[in-house]
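LAB NOTEBOOK - FOLDING QUEUE
OPERATOR: T.R.
BATCH SIZE: 2
PURPOSE: Compare the predicted structure-token outputs for two unrelated chains run back to back under identical settings.
PRIORITY: normal
REVIEWER: second-year student, initials M.K.

ITEM 1
FIELD SEQUENCE / FIELD STRUCTURE:
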Amino acid sequence: MSIFATKRTAEPVRHAFQLSPVAAGCAVFLSVFAGSAYAQAQDNTTTTTSATSSVATQPNSAEQTAAAAEPTPAGATAQPNVATVQVTGIRRGIEAAISIKKNSSSIVEAISAEDIGKLPDQSVAESISRLPGVSAQRGRSSGKASDISVRGLSPSFNGTLLNGREMASTGNARSPEFDLFPAELMGSIVIYKTPEASVIGQGLASTIDLRTVQPLDFGKRTVAVSYKKTRLGVKHPDGLPEGDGKRATLSYIDQFANRTIGVAMGFTRYEETGGGQTTFNSWGTAEMAYNGANVKTPGGFGYDTVVDSHERDGAFASLQFRPNKNFKSTVDLFYSAGETGQKKTGFEGGVAYNGGGAYELPHVLSTATVSNGVATSGTISNWKGVVRNHYEGSKDDLKTIGWNNELKIADWTTAADLTWSKATKLASRYETTAGIAGRAQDTLRYTNFNGANVTEVKYTPGSNYADRSVARLTDVMGWSGGEASPQAGYLAQPYVEDTVKAVRLTAKRSLELGPITGTSFGFNHTSRDKSRTGDEGRLVIAGGPYAAAAVPGSDVAFAGSSGFQVVSWDPRGSLGSVYQLAQKVDADIYNKYWDVSERINTAYVMGDLNGEMFGLSYRGNVGLQAIHTNQRGGGYVIDKARCVGNTAQTCPAQRVDEGDSYWDVLPSANLSFDLGNEQVLRLGMAKVVSRANLDDLRAGQNFGISTTGVPILVGSGGNPQLKPFRAKALDLSYEKYFGNKGYISAAVFYKKLDSYILRIPRPFDFRPFVTPTTPLPLTGPYAGSTVGLFNQPVNGDGGNLKGYELAVNVPFSMITPYLDGFGAMVNHSDTRSNVNLPETGFANVAGDLTSIPLPGLSRKVSNLRIYYEKNGFQIAAAARKRSSFLGQVSDFQDNAQLTFIKGETIVDLQASYEIQSGWLKGVSLYAQAQNWNNAPFLEFTTDEENPSNRRDYGRTYHFGATYKF
């Protein structure tokens, strides 16, 4: 049987070798899971459930299935014919996925909702991370899957679409964070690993299309409601209190006026307060004078208890109007607004080291017990401790509107699509200090120190810092200079705003011209404007430099694993009531403020292919995109020599605005050969690009004389002339299908990176920005010269990226009817790159390194999911594993930083039961467990066996019910 649905009669297809599911499955299992049985369970994690553009129906013909599998033009919907799906639950998602993958012209992976508002995981990122060649980085604060890497490339190399349209984002990257998309509002997700000319907004690694449901794809009115309770931080290694949460969802789909009007709406709300996490920051060891000799003591310490909170409201609506077979109009609306926060309650202080402020006197060690030069215990006088109550959080919202109109005129199908998307994000970073005001001192007793065990030392402050009469809000240490510049805390409130507008015109028609069976043309104009502004500065308490205020409330909390309690409060809303803001600007703060605008015009032509080559039937497409980009970046130039304070008057800045324009011509071709017996060989070739992160396009910079080494002017900033990442891609995939029930696949890929964006210092003449008061080097080879080194993102030569992917997705009933209901999905990928970036371009990467690997690249990624579904019962166990990689986190100054993250395995479990008959038919009860194996989040510098930072999250349990009618 031919796997292709063709429009023309072809000669009999030559059948390739016959492949049984048992033999195929064994072959892939052996290649992926070589090793012991225990290693298999640990090293190989969950695979994919795939997608369809309608979560409730499947196309009822091969042609319609193939159409549904093609890249979705903006606002496009499925064919009007409706068929009733006979399978439910896990198998529904799997079979819809296989239908998409099987009938696509390109190489795709996909996920489908198992039912209305029910993706197989709690979040979009978690579901995506189970696909072949896809991996997720957990957020450092939440422990949940957040950033997605495809085929070893960083998240910024992915293009992310909503119903085929580009969206605004709230971060420095172009694509929005996946946290903005509640899983309940998604009908399906399709990842295109090979590009097609008709898809706008593609990425170099992949294009991820998030799809909401379309109401006219459904055969009848459908309503679903669900409610869920959550327990977080269960079985935490430190025994901290658990967190809780709740989640509610409503979905409504209906058709009116003889199915000419369709309406779909979805609403979801969730709230979570995480369980406590403990962190410890060691200041190392040092020496102090005691009885005429130097003895070894701890350097200092910092303890924190961290509690996360998350709230989000999400909604979507789709209105379709199809009065006849020649016209269709669709309006899509999407809204997401939420608040994410992290509250830290902690305590810090020096032992050998002074806290670094103007108010703390030199420490004195007394009553010490000394053994072999180590002061195993002792008392520190002239000491001050600091209670920390910090809050780091943000409020964001994303609004997207799309309007698509499709009109058939004779042999032509034309479409016009409009997009408007806006995202905003206001972050708040409160840092507050409490303790003994002014120059008054305290004492500290420590015990149980052996010279190396800095994490096990017991500390006992002389005062009770859980007493609000002792610990008061004040400038405890004088960290900002003391009396002349009091600082009882710090507040930073960066604000990001991004607006995307687009218009797209397309036309397509059938054509008989050799192997070309159809052609399509299109033009897209995208306008994007993004900016980052904000306020930050010292928090000041009125009444002079030693002024103090009572800590609001009566809460106390343990400071991490210190064993003692401190005062606790939430500083949000305290500006104006407790503190005044002394606004601060300096070179580093100016560098955070920027704006970027882009005007991108894309024209494309694509031909659909259907023919025979080498005695094999094939189909596919070939096309070309021509893209013209006009970009401009704005920012500030700061001469550090003239920046003598932290106000606008004492640190003057010069506004600059620069830009560039360029063309990219991107050919692409996808061919799928029918090998017979439901076997397909796919070939993809293309040139691909990914544009730089928007903050890299800013025009700002700062410069001054280097204070280390040879005197020379040095500076850093953005690059408005930056061109995209560019690459050539070659993909080959073999796929064997067993109807829509299962498949195995093996794929290889190769990407030649023609250019890569990296930060490196380069020679630069600062003459345009030098003033008569700017000091120049006085000695050395650069004496009197305005030429120096400027560290900025530039386009460098690339390298290559290559790898392979293996996947098995089969129900065990194909092996024997005794295993009916059981099934497994397994995949494994291995990716390698010869690209090593100079460590000098990433000053935030610690360690003795001369080069670093590609950010986001895990060499090995594995997934496993085993399930049972029968008679209303659904049980699944899943695991995902990735090897160590260079990831990205945010630092305390709201800047993106690179850090090495140790490889991990995450195990998830789920079980549910749907009542099959009676008045409760349609009710499902379910329970899920995430991070069942309590996997920690570990960061390291050079040796992954010696982590520099550890976060434990415990397990997360979900219990809920769904009712569909």
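ITEM 2
FIELD SEQUENCE / FIELD STRUCTURE:
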Amino acid sequence: MRAILLLALMAIGTFGFSQTNINGIVVDQNNEPIPGANIVIVGKTIGTVTDFDGNFNLATSEVPPFKIEVSSIGYTNTTANIISASQTLTITLNESQTFLDEVVISASRTPERIFESPVTVERMGIETIKSTTAADFYGGLENLKGVDVNTNSLTFKSVNTRGFASFANTRFMQLVDGMDNSTPALNFPIGNLVGMIETDVSSVELLPGASSALYGANAFNGILFMRSKSPFDHEGISVSIKRGITSQKAAGDNAYTDVGIRAAHKFSDKFAAKVNFGYLKGTDWAATSEVDKTTPGGTRADLNYDGINVYGDEVSTDIKDVAVTLEGLGILPAGANALVPSQEVSRTGYNESVLTNYNAESIKADWGLYYRPIEDNSLELSYVGKVGTGNTIYQGTNRYNIAGFFQEQHKLEIKNDNFFVRGYVVSDKAGDSYDMVFTGIQINRAWKDDNTWFGEYTGAYVQATLGGATDEQAHTAARAQAETGRYLPGTPEFQAAFNRSINDPNLVTGSKFQDASKYYHADANYNFSHLIDWAEIQVGGSFREYSLNSSGTIYTDFDGPINYSEFGIYSQVQKTLPFENDRSLKLTGSMRYDKSEFFDGFISPRLSAGFTLNRNHNIRASAQTGFRNPTTQDLFIGLDAGRAILVGSAPDNLDRYSRDFEVSGGGQLLGQPETITQTGAAAYNNSYSAASATRLGETGNPADLVVSNPDIIKPEKVTSVEVGYRGKVDKLVIDFSTYYNSYKDFISQEVVIAPYYGTAGDGGLSVAALANGDFQAYSAYTNTDANVNSYGASLGLSMKVLGNFDLEGSYTFTKLDFDREANPDVMLNFNTPEHKFKASFGNKQLFDNFGFNVSYRFSDDYFWEATFGNGVIPEFHVVDAQINYDVPSIKSTFKLGGTNLTNKEYYTAFGTGFIGSMYYLSWTINN
């Protein structure tokens, strides 16, 4: 209570010191008001921003004369002299010719113009967000040059750059006001499900490629920075209301609602606060593909059918082995197994559409308290809290219904212009989330266990064959017999089995996954530029501790949470060397040391040079090394995904996963017990490659088998070289970059086959185990010693045409250099089109208060590779558009827009729902 009273007295006391009061309006060259313009006293951190009508008031204890600087994205900065204690100004800003004058922070951890940035950087400001053709700012990222956005669901989009994309994108980092937005359980961000609210977004910056030298191990493929508005600079209540529909052939037309509210107030020059709330609800893109995953051209009539979005049919067996077992039990007469072919048969699955309601929902809120105790506002203390919950679809090894997922973050930070120190905690809870694949499997087992189903199938096949049926007729009769008693969707029995499964966290009998993981993070940075004038020197560091707690449903934490930590320190030196005729050379060198408790430390250096020929032309080059530590899943996962068991390769994890397996009748005839216990270590020290086991099945030649025994995982490294150019030729703005990446110890998953008995490579007992079906498939986490390289280039062009119209276009080329034939078992998940083209055409002021924008995206076809399945993603063309109208009298902007206006449905990943169209109308107030 004393502290609160003291803060209140300090806040009230500050009003008495205000001696100078400046009022004014900021307008453009057409005398239109500019909302959100920044007004700052030169040489100080004291300032304010204009309201929706361009008006501002700046009360300060600073005594005239002094200068203020006025700036806004898209306009040229200007200054004004303050000569009296009470002054009213009209300030005109001229529109900047290019985005090159925009200021970014992420590239060097210090403010600099994009034109001078040492590496490639993309940016979205408030005006760009306003004119985006996407339904929200996060969706607008896919219009940025070189950026890939893969759509997992309506509320979960995965951002990536420069290849190696997956929905579990642990190679790409996402920060919200300096806080990592990745989920503790999954180790990667789940889009903007629990992220930022659009009315609070100040800017978005994106660095493509490796950024480990400044931002650590997770910034391997790129990093996304989202910054919110300060309540000191942006006061008032802002509201965004968006209503519309989503339209998809499979799901139909469904309502879409997105509401955001921001309230901020500056109680004094020393204390301010804000709160945000967001709500989104819609219907997800339904995934309804019945294409056979494993057999090209396969249909549901196939005996061993495994549909892409059909679950439960993953369970299959060779009915020849079943016949041998039934003979041994005396159920079939001696010699009956001769009538049964060696044929894999799968159980009948359930369509995904009956295992989820496709509810897409996001509810999130955040709040912040900000205190500036020093009169010149150079120091700020803050507390920020964030919570979010929602429903979405996540596709990893299986398809998961993320229902009631909850994540919270709490941050304390102290900073000024020269340093920051922050600490935060991120925790999550899985809610009512479940594995849809295992739900289908468990519903099948609820009405008939696998042994009974395959036993009935095999017995009926023998009876039909003895009755004179053909092979096809016998299989039809066998499935009909085995399917007796099947629970049909919509029946009370089906619903009861469904409910039991999704509430049971034991994957032997259920499909729910639990999690209450968290991580603690602290980082700090100090800039010595105010103390040293010959160069800008920064030092910093970070520390993170993970606490994995899935109760054994994801990780091998059956007996309690798994805790481990990592830390890093870095330094950067930047020096600008001026020359004649506006020429200059900007040199930047940085180095970072990172250490995980499981691995040796690693040093990541970066060198860059930017040569400014004149104010219109800049050439840049950089070379750096990066690395990434194995993720929490790489190290500690222990998850039965159906077709394979995923086992992480932390040294103490190999024996933490253990399971009993039944041995076939053929194996028991070889003297093996009825059951054996196998640990995850078998995947790493007694296994064959899956590809060679498949060849054995085709040829019957044991010489085709290749012992796998993959090494346990270690950090992955990359060496990256980039060259770029930014400049302006007359009205044309050019931004070009090209890069080459070379990887060492590339982290990948390798599917292996571990026999229940025998030793891999023995040429005898282990081969018999494979022939008898006595083996388990594992997905091992390891590194490949194969050469993995990638390279590419991006070209962006923009200019004003036909007076005041904006025309922009970009082309991105991305290529993987890897010998697939020599390394068939290595999974890289490159998942990126070789060619992409994007274009937009618009006008922010077609006439008074009216603007529009049209965008187009083209993606070449590409091959998608992931643990859920592999397949070709066809090329697609997408057209989005929006019109907007400002009504200054009510401080409002109305926006009417649509995405995928051609209504040609497409998809960006194998197994996801087709992306349809969205049509929406939004009303934004005071933003």
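REVIEWER COMMENT (ITEM 2): Residues 1-18 have pLDDT under 50 and may be disordered.
FOLLOW-UP: none requested
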